[in-house]
Design a protein that fits this description.
By secondary structure, the protein is α/β, with parallel strands linked by helices. Helices cover 39% and strands 19% of the residues. Strands 1, 2, 3, 4, 5 and 6 form a six-stranded mixed beta sheet that branches. Strands 7-8-9-10-12-11 form a six-stranded mixed beta sheet. Bound molecules: adenosine monophosphate. Adenosine monophosphate is lined by residues 22, 24, 84-85, 88, 106, 264, 280-284, 287-291. Adenosine monophosphate (AMP) is lined by residues 22, 24, 84-85, 88, 106, 264, 280-284, 287-291.
């Protein structure tokens, strides 16, 4: 049996299923978990499926989280999606079930599941779920199609990243045949509240660029407060510095709590996830995150990134 078949066997064997994903969820994490829940409910009888985790207000339009107390985990199947490392799973109850499955597309050594289905070649977990559902011969409703399409569009930067493959378009093509309202979906995904627009202007006025092409900005807690930014709306600033001539890597630094500076790192060339791993982070080769303890460490990270930019294309 291949891993996809083994996953189906487990889903059939358990009547209680809890689905988790990573902290600071994005549309791929939410689309894949909420979509998988609906797929199971729509195609198999007698399943009680709960999607758990922090309710991200900015993405509430994708769906709401369920509750699952300790008793629900007894004898339950737990599926964790879109999460490379166990330390990033929201929340820590994921170990309380009877069996644990990981479904993910990040490169990672942390195979925390009893069963691990990791496809590094998939551009999103929503793409993986679409192919899983098609392979199982499952019916996909319009609601599920919209959730999965949202994750595919978002995790590929609207089909721009080099993670996009023919399989990505096959999944997207199939989902589109189900009648998705693409205009409404895009409005939801990319709508810009006025405060975010003003914060984007702040970024454009305050970013800096290193000698070899690292563009970055640092945003203190006070400034984030001034613009009314949340962890959800902050993500709308990550691409403001994309596609600048001469820039290969961009980093957003957001001061969070004491001793916590979140870095969002994106690359248009060099591999950056191995560097992110050294700064309490990780992710994809060209899209990673990291967590720093103080601003001096941000300077070290910028220096390291500048070095890979300097030698990029020489190997
Ligand atoms: P972000 O910058 O938060 O949008 O994250 C970009 C990518 O890196 C996503 O695929 C995240 O799952 C991953 N990522 C972000 N932060 C971390 C971290 N601290 N450890 C491992 N992976 C991370």
């Amino acid at each position: 049996m291949n891993v996809q078949e083994q996953i189906l066997e487990k889903i059939k064997a358990y009547d209680k299923i809890v689905i988790h994903r990573h902290i600071s969820p994005d549309p791929d994490a939410l689309g894949s978990t909420l979509g998988f829940k609906k797929l199971i409910e729509d195609n198999l009888n007698g399943k009680d499926v709960r999607v758990v985790g922090y309710q991200e207000k900015n993405l509430e339009w994708l769906g709401r989280m369920d509750q699952a107390g300790d008793a629900f985990y007894e004898g339950a199947l737990v599926i964790v999606m879109d999460t490379a490392n166990s330390s990033r799973i929201d929340n820590k109850n994921f170990n309380k079930g009877a069996h644990l499955i990981k479904i993910d597309h990040h490169p990672s050594e942390d195979q925390y599941g009893h069963l691990n289905f990791v496809d590094k070649g998939a551009a999103s977990v929503c793409e993986m779920v679409t192919h899983l559902a098609l392979g199982y011969g499952w019916k996909i409703s319009l609601e599920v199609a919209t959730l999965l399409y949202a994750g595919i569009v978002s995790d590929t930067g609207r089909f721009l990243y080099d993670t996009v493959t023919p399989q990505t378009f096959e999944a997207a093509k199939y989902l589109l045949t189900l009648g998705i309202d693409v205009n409404e979906l895009n409005r939801n995904l990319y709508k810009k509240p006025m405060n975010v627009l003003k914060a984007q202007a702040y970024v454009l006025n305050h970013f800096e660029v290193t000698e070899h092409g690292v563009a970055y900005f640092k945003m203190s807690k006070e400034i984030q407060k001034e613009f009314g930014l949340t962890t959800g709306t902050r993500s709308l600033l990550v691409d403001v510095l994309a596609n600048i001539e001469g820039v290969l890597v961009r980093v957003c630094f957001f001061e969070q709590d004491k001793d916590q500076i979140r870095a969002n790192i994106r690359s248009e060339g060099p591999i950056i996830n191995q560097i992110a791993e050294r700064y309490d982070g990780g992710g994809h080769p060209k899209a990673s995150g990291a967590m720093l303890k103080k601003w001096e460490v941000a300077t070290d990270l910028i220096t390291e990134l500048d070095l890979v930019c300097q030698y990029f294309g020489e190997e």
